[in-house]
């Protein structure tokens, strides 16, 4: 026996894994799946992109098939996007057993979700806020749940989720359940929660360091004057990684929009993802990127966790993050599950201390990208003027885009119309 079979995975699940191209378990899967199948609670720390989702979905599905009843498992995710991606994974792996799974997330009518829960699904994949609302409304009974999963546990235990998370965990009888915690980083709060586990909890850490990135990830930088970051980004995307699947991370949604339109003026068509977009817009953008219809995604840290994209070749930190854990999650979008990847940080004169902190905490040395001097000359002689013009045109395009969205909102407001318009006409 080898592969997933050696971990105790049943044949029907092996077929599901093979149909999804999963033939050999990753390190975290190899460690966590047998422990969960043995009935142990799990605290697993592994880098983003290491196969954590399958590490908890596989044992849940196998145990469910042995004794299917009521609400069997609750999987909690910090974002709507991640919840929907995990929902799809559960559907795909559980296809052979008619598993009933429901996603309980914001942006969906509460009545519709209440009706879905009234049909008593086997597995609930949810964000804490919406599921907590449903438990308070008594739309669902979690008292017999056998598994509770906290995916991206460090983020779920942040203050914004604390009350909702407490309401959910209180409703799920601790004596009857296994608790599975998965996270790229293990914070003090995650450790504190793990202390409440029953004896025999299985603990797995991919590496002993607090923060980590995968070995096959090439981590490089350019030292860039703040005003030249646009030009360097344009060079990277048009000269070095053209037509490659790329994610550019920024710190503000305004930067997200400005770069999207600037790069369009330079012939690079991409999509953006930030908190100012409607759910439908975000889902459409993600689908275009995942399907490779668009090769570029420009995103705020809303998207730095939970993006389930098979192959991202390049990550660019347009804005260097001020938290090491954010850096880890960002660059974890590439070099996933053994594949190579490159992360390039654009370090301005204001970011040097942030880069030094990242190097210190990760115990690594970011490498200056090859031929940096030559590229600096190319940018100065060829790209700066083009980018300056593109920036001006992008400014007008962004303004038009925002005004058109504002006009659409005004058109959609029902009750304002006639009387007020008559007054203006007079």
Automatic annotation (TrEMBL):
<dbReference type="GO" id="GO:0003724">
    <property type="term" value="F:RNA helicase activity"/>
</dbReference>
<feature type="domain" description="Helicase C-terminal">
    <location>
        <begin position="216"/>
        <end position="380"/>
    </location>
</feature>
<dbReference type="InterPro" id="IPR027417">
    <property type="entry name" value="P-loop_NTPase"/>
</dbReference>
<keyword id="KW-0347">Helicase</keyword>
<feature type="domain" description="DEAD-box RNA helicase Q">
    <location>
        <begin position="2"/>
        <end position="30"/>
    </location>
</feature>
<feature type="short sequence motif" description="Q motif">
    <location>
        <begin position="2"/>
        <end position="30"/>
    </location>
</feature>
<dbReference type="GO" id="GO:0003676">
    <property type="term" value="F:nucleic acid binding"/>
</dbReference>
<dbReference type="Pfam" id="PF00271">
    <property type="entry name" value="Helicase_C"/>
</dbReference>
<dbReference type="GO" id="GO:0005524">
    <property type="term" value="F:ATP binding"/>
</dbReference>
<comment type="similarity">
    <text>Belongs to the DEAD box helicase family.</text>
</comment>
<feature type="region of interest" description="Disordered">
    <location>
        <begin position="398"/>
        <end position="426"/>
    </location>
</feature>
<protein>
    <recommendedName>
        <fullName>ATP-dependent RNA helicase</fullName>
    </recommendedName>
</protein>
<feature type="domain" description="Helicase ATP-binding">
    <location>
        <begin position="33"/>
        <end position="204"/>
    </location>
</feature>
<keyword id="KW-0378">Hydrolase</keyword>
<feature type="compositionally biased region" description="Basic residues">
    <location>
        <begin position="415"/>
        <end position="426"/>
    </location>
</feature>
<dbReference type="InterPro" id="IPR001650">
    <property type="entry name" value="Helicase_C-like"/>
</dbReference>
<dbReference type="Pfam" id="PF00270">
    <property type="entry name" value="DEAD"/>
</dbReference>
<dbReference type="InterPro" id="IPR014014">
    <property type="entry name" value="RNA_helicase_DEAD_Q_motif"/>
</dbReference>
<keyword id="KW-0547">Nucleotide-binding</keyword>
<dbReference type="GO" id="GO:0016787">
    <property type="term" value="F:hydrolase activity"/>
</dbReference>
<keyword id="KW-0067">ATP-binding</keyword>
<dbReference type="InterPro" id="IPR050079">
    <property type="entry name" value="DEAD_box_RNA_helicase"/>
</dbReference>
<feature type="compositionally biased region" description="Basic and acidic residues">
    <location>
        <begin position="398"/>
        <end position="414"/>
    </location>
</feature>
<dbReference type="InterPro" id="IPR014001">
    <property type="entry name" value="Helicase_ATP-bd"/>
</dbReference>
<dbReference type="InterPro" id="IPR011545">
    <property type="entry name" value="DEAD/DEAH_box_helicase_dom"/>
</dbReference>
<dbReference type="InterPro" id="IPR000629">
    <property type="entry name" value="RNA-helicase_DEAD-box_CS"/>
</dbReference>
<dbReference type="GO" id="GO:0005829">
    <property type="term" value="C:cytosol"/>
</dbReference>
